[in-house]
Specification:
The chain is mostly helical and about 80 residues long. The protein folds into two domains: about 45 residues, no CATH class; about 30 residues. Helices cover about 80% and strands about 0% of the residues. The longest helix has 30 residues.
Length: about 80
């Protein structure tokens, strides 16, 4: 209930300030929603885009190393000693 009250209060404030044109109203709604989104993300303690990109690069490097070690193991196990 308090969250919907927050949104209604923001709309009331917009109307009080005289921002009645559609563009101004839509910009204000978008700003309110972005601020709420940022607040939720901050509370969830999510990683930033840069951190995610760095982690993806690290994962890619590790996957390459795993593939290389698998290839080395296959080449070693395929060689059998002659009697």
């Amino acid at each position: 209930m308090s969250k919907s009250r927050f949104v209604f209060d923001k709309f009331a404030k917009v109307l009080e300030q005289g921002l009645v044109s559609y563009k101004d109203l839509s910009d204000e709604v978008i700003n309110v929603l972005k601020s709420k989104r940022d607040e939720i993300i901050f509370r969830m303690k999510l990683a930033s885009k840069e951190e995610i990109e760095i982690l993806n690069k690290r994962i890619a490097i590790l996957e390459k190393k795993i593939e290389q070690t698998k290839k080395v193991k296959k080449s070693r196990s395929s060689k059998k000693a002659k009697k």
